[in-house]
Amino acid sequence: MRMSFVVNGRSRTLDAPPLTRLLDILRGPLGLTGTKEGCGEGECGSCTVLLDGVPVNACLVVAGQCDGRTVLTVEGLASKDTLSDLQEAFVKEGGAQCGICTPGILMAAHALLAANPQPGEGEIRESIAGNICRCTGYQRIVESIRQAAKEQAAREPG
Amino acid sequence: MALVGRSVPRADGPAKVAGTARYVDDLTRPGVLLGATLRSPVARGRLRGIRRDPSFDWTGVTVVTAEDVPVNVVALIEEDQPVLASDEVRHAYEPIALVAAEDPVRLARALRALTPEIDPLPPVLTVADALQRKAQIHGPDNVFATYRISKGDAAKAIAESAVRLSGTYRTHHQEQLYIEPQGMLAFWDASGAHLVGSLQCPFYVHKGVKRTFSLDDAHVDVTQAVTGGGFGGKEEYPTLLALHALLLAKKSGRPVKMIYDRQEDIEATTKRHPSEVTISSGCDREGNLSAVSIRIVMDGGAYVTLTPVVLSRGALHAAGAYRWEHVSIEAIAVATNTPPNGAFRGFGAPQTIWAIERHLDRIARELSADPLALREKNLLRVGDTTPTGQFLKESVGVQRCVEEARKASGWERKRETLGQAAAARPVSAILRRPAPGGSASRKARGIGASVFLHGAGFTGSGERKLKGRVAIDMFQLLTEKKPRFRIRTASTDIGQGTETVFRQIAAEALWVSMDRVDFATPSTATVPDSGPTVASRTVMIVGSILEHAARDLFARIEQNRQKQGGSFDDAARRLIAHEGTVISEKTYETPADFVWDDATYRGDAYPVFGWGCDIAEVEVDLDTFETTVIGFWAAQDVGKAIHPLMCKGQIEGGTLQAIGWALNEKVVLKDGKILNARMTNYIVPTSIDAPRFTTVLVEDPYSRGPGGGAKGIGELPMDGGAPAIAAAIEHATGIVRDDLPLLPEDLFVAWKTGR
């Protein structure tokens, strides 16, 4: 099946069986290996990407569903060489340890902050409840997201 | 410079948040094949052969069996485990054959076209059956290892005590569940065998490859890829996977990548050893502890792996953080036909700490004493001796840990206001009469504590035998004005922050900024053997070797400067002009006053201990028996926090693993097979299950620790969580559990049966 979609702001057209997992399209032909596979059954959230702005598990979405839509992966968060506030916060606040869950968590948090720029702790925890982290105990991740929200607010007053 | 003690940005952070960090599955090589493993469907049997479906087109498919393995052993402590089973199969999922093909679909079909032909034998599935020798599966008696530790006369002292109490405490398997599954990329060329993989210990893999393929040091190169968590699960297991990938690569003549899927990873790789610990103790009516007798039995699974060392660490921690005049510890590990158990953060200590902490609560119950006060009264102090006769010279910060955790949690008030003792109606009465609907009163809150210790560094004479080495290089890049430095060590960063903390230690010792210090990718071809990344030894032991190497280098530069003038960088450049890359390499020197006798198990078991006090507050739903952790206070003596933020991250992450072990995680085995080998049904805590942690870093420095006194803390936080949770549940509901886990169904059964 021939399909077109926008990945990280760039139009991509490719031929693939329609039931190919989005995860395999990203990591394979598109070379976007920042999206990780942890379980292949939608439990760990490591492969979270945004499909039209909504977090999905790329291991559970098939390529055919993405035709004409927009995909954002971790590679699309930074602008040129500048990390986003969220990415910066994870580096500074200890949000990333081994880093394998980090891309997925960043995508879930990115979607949260887009919809709700000043989330409370409960909302932050809820937003990443589909992303398993085995290293951090989550507290530094929550702090990182909270810090990023603060930075964003400071940058965009009112 | 004051780099030590500062929470600098994580050195490998930018690549990890940008998605550019390369894990093993992100790597490839031209012509790469994918590899997979044919595994045993039964727990025990005689392997007659492997049937290849003649109707399958085998073109382009590589198959490896035991006959293809040059020396069919996995070189760990013992050589009892084959790389591929050749005659007897000893556990379900044991590797029998390997397959490689170009694409995953062909690979899956080829794997299905192979059938192991096995005559099943009756398996030994429980520790009791192993001890009764229902079948002989290892040596003459199914015993992997035995240890005895003795101080004074425990039996006599217990018999003479006013309060004598006994209990048996059990713990279950636990899966490490690193989020990146095991993976390895292998290839051969004229210079020998090459591996890049997800691993903790490059030189363990190196050793195994040398043995199986009869190669010398120079012909094996093992490189760590960015590694997505380990927790012990990538300590010894990657050796087996590396051998598999290399066998396929050798036979096919192509590079081979093997990446486990989640189910295979949970089924085939090692777990935490289940244990049964029986404790008898004696104390007086005031709660002064005097004697303890402990028997530990651990289930090692089908092969030795690291079991003797896990058992040893369990035994060495079994008496807890307390003063006992008389101690008798007997520890034994047996073989069963279950997947081999191995390294998991804590390494035997969480099992025995669970037992001794539950036993302390038993004593408190018997004496109607405050559980924390009882502990506090009996804490080890500087000047005391441990069960092995180790004299505690310094850095025993446990008293402060108790004080900090008590204060931060509001212990006294909560012991009074929460719990069934304080309830208007006893919880037991509420439980007997279920009310319709879920009113607020049908939840009970309680608070519980644990106190614990963890030996930092290798046990006993381990470091003396190992002689870990670290190098630091000084060199000049043409593109830069000032000389640069490069740390070369086999200590890996698996998320805990080695790259960052080592840069801090080196930069501080050299009086240079951190951005001038690189961290070489751990590769056996280029780094010295610093020993494995295990045993809470990376910062404390390897970090101290690094600090010495960096100080030596600094001294050389400084000497040159004083002689010939100019700046520090001028002197550094002169040394480089003279020597090329200037190398400062150091070997670990075990302190001369550190004495250990392997034969009698007497002496200094560890250079020093980390200490901790955990306090948990829980809410138990009296309809569903679900436990929610409301708050968690962890005060832990780390000696000196080189990077306080990452240090807290270790404590929080380790503690949540302990909470998961207690409240969520359970490996369900039937006929030696795992029924819940997926993330759908092996449940670990999410962000919503995790409590908000209050972490207090207590710093009672260790005179030989780097950065002004750092101690190992990787494993310490795994020890205290489970018993603190159990104690809090007991306080809330009156339900006393001596066995893990504490799943709702376990609490329900315990309540129903009045236990």
Explain what you see.
By secondary structure, chain A is α+β, with helices and mostly antiparallel strands. In chain A, 34% of the residues lie in helices and 15% in strands. A 5-stranded mixed sheet of chain A has the order 2-1-5-3-4, covered by helices on one side. Chain A is globular, with a radius of gyration of 15 Å. Chain B has 755 residues and is an alpha+beta fold. Helices cover 31% and strands 24% of the residues of chain B. Chain B has 21 helices and 27 strands. In chain B, the strands form 7 sheets. A 7-stranded mixed sheet of chain B has the order 3-5-1-12-9-10-11, with helices on both faces. In chain B, strands 7-15-14-13-8 form a 5-stranded mixed sheet. A 4-stranded mixed sheet of chain B has the order 16-23-24-27, with helices on both faces. In chain B, helix 8 (307-317) links the parallel strand 14 and strand 15. Chain B is globular and about 75 Å long. In chain B, 59% of the residues are buried. Classes of the chains: A alpha+beta (158), B alpha+beta (755).
Q: What attributes does this structure have?
A:
heterodimer, A: 158 residues, alpha+beta, 5 helices, 5 strands, globular, B: 755 residues, 7-stranded mixed sheet, 5-stranded mixed sheet, 27 strands, 31% helix
